[in-house]
Amino acid sequence: MIRIIIYGANGKMGQVLSKVIACEKDMKIVAGIDRSPNKEKNPYPVYKDFKECKEEADVIIDFSHVSNLEKVLKYSLEKRLALIIATTGLSDEDYSEIKQASKNIPVLCSSNMSLGINALKKALKEISPTLDGFDIEIIEKHHNKKLDAPSGTAYLLANAINESLDNSKNYTFGRKGIDAKRQSNEIGIHAIRGGTIPGEHTVIFAGLDEIIEIKHTALTKNVFANGAVKATRFITKAQPGLYGMNDIF
Q: Which residue segment(s) compose the domain that 9 sits in?
């Protein structure tokens, strides 16, 4: 039985994840951590801080906020727990701290846990080098309560494309003004916020007289929870190191 602690248990993703894990016979949520521990009724205890948690666990799944990263890494290292980091908005310094922690514990870090998005990422690495001379644009859409923009997934996809092109592209975030002509060495990234959109990402390759569009749409947040379940099974058997979603395929 895989014993799980959810950080951000009472958030929207934490609650979706709780329902999905409840249907898995080989997994059990033993505790949750949340800044509002009494906000929801859960079949497991929820604490405000790790220091209150006495339950034994195998893995922490963090769907909270980047501001909690230091606490999550510290507790995971102290208890030698596998860790899944599913938060967005991570800085270069944050990634350095995650990489350092992964020398001692297995860490899977991904700004998007969707299996479809990670399959798309893999496909983009394959096709981007073949489309020489095509202009590349990324449009991402999310609900009106999302804090960061562009989304972590937009960066995930842009970085996958750029890596396959020897990091030859610069990122342009939106365009405005009377002299906003597109440059050939850029990837345009645009963010749309509205309503309750769970997540939609479109990658456009625009060439001479032809256009290729590849789109992924998350219809519910369950897609992220389902991916987290697969990631949990992988990371609890992994050796110390830093992993991504592509490693579970």
A: 2-109+221-248
